[in-house]
Write a structure and sequence with these properties.
This protein is of the alpha+beta class. It has two domains: 108 residues, Alpha Horseshoe (Serine Threonine Protein Phosphatase 5, Tetratricopeptide repeat); 115 residues, ADP-ribosylation fold (Alpha-Beta Barrel). It has eight helices and seven strands; from the N terminus they run ααααααβββαββββα. The strands form two sheets. Strands 1-4-7-2 form a four-stranded antiparallel sheet. It has a three-stranded antiparallel sheet with strand order 3-6-5. Helix 1 packs antiparallel against helix 2. The longest helix is centred in the middle third of the chain and has 20 residues. The radius of gyration is 19 Å and the shape is globular. The two termini are 30 Å apart. InterPro entries: Arr_sf, Rifampin_Arr. This is Rifampin ADP-ribosyltransferase domain-containing protein. It holds the Pfam family Arr-ms.
Length: 247
């Protein structure tokens, strides 16, 4: 199971986080609890338990949920979960620190450091856009952001998940057809800091950025599309991000 914005548990956790950012902790907790109750497999339980851990009133109750998140995450053992382990181990260590358990705190901080080593993602990789491109074309940094009119991007962005690229295509400016291309990085790349450890732990969207061009090597002709209502909600969220893009 990979991160998918169409997944109902992911959508619930996104809605809960929106409430949390507005300071509505009780409403957020109720939504996260619903996500937990409706989660049907380990990846969904890993995500829901993580968010339940964030809204607990005490270190001991937070620890219970975070350890539950870890338990389910380790059963999945995919790149989305692995990218979240440094922050999850750190949060568990923080709980032990507040509970004055120095031995366990040190243990989990060491786990966080170990998990934070480079996690290679071999792709395949995708880029969502409305541009009409050909095989062999290069996508290069220096374009204007789709989300902020006055921002020239220093990097080119891509993902290892087709639904994520499809969402990026849907959010791209213009009225030309949405396109999802298969791309190959021509140089080094890093986690996208605009999503890593932001709304969701780690880099579950497997989103990356590079200062080097991406080469178009193919095109995905069909992918799951979000309904217009959901796209509108995403655009509203992005409008609130103005000035917050890490470039």
């Amino acid at each position: 199971m990979e991160f998918n914005p169409h997944n109902p548990i992911i959508r619930l956790c996104t809605a809960g986080t929106d409430k949390l950012e507005l300071g509505n902790i009780l409403e957020a907790t109720e939504i996260y609890k619903r996500a937990w109750d409706e989660a049907s497999h380990d990846f969904e339980k890993f995500i829901a338990a993580f968010f339940m851990g964030k809204v607990q009133p005490s270190p001991s109750s937070a620890l219970q949920w975070l350890r539950l998140s870890l338990e389910h995450g380790l059963k999945v053992n995919n790149l989305s979960v692995q990218s979240a382990l440094p922050s999850l181990y750190t949060m568990i260590a923080d709980c032990y620190g507040k509970l004055d358990d120095a031995e366990k705190e040190i243990q989990y901080r060491q786990q966080a450091e170990l998990a934070g080593k480079n996690i290679p993602d071999k792709g395949p990789f995708y880029h969502g856009t409305r541009a009409d491109l050909q095989l062999g074309d290069l996508l290069v940094p220096g374009g204007v952001s789709n989300y902020q009119d006055d921002l020239v991007m220093n990097h080119i962005y891509f993902t290892a998940l087709i639904p994520g690229a499809g969402l990026a295509a849907a959010l791209a400016k213009g009225d030309t057809p949405e396109r999802v291309y298969i791309v190959e990085p021509t140089g080094s790349f890093e986690n996208d800091p605009n999503v890593t450890d932001k709304k969701f732990p780690g880099n579950p969207t497997r989103s990356y950025r590079s200062a080097h061009p991406l080469k178009i090597v193919g095109e995905v002709k069909d992918w799951p599309r979000l309904p217009l209502e959901e796209i509108t909600k995403w655009k509203e969220r992005l409008a609130k991000m103005e000035g917050k893009i890490i470039n």
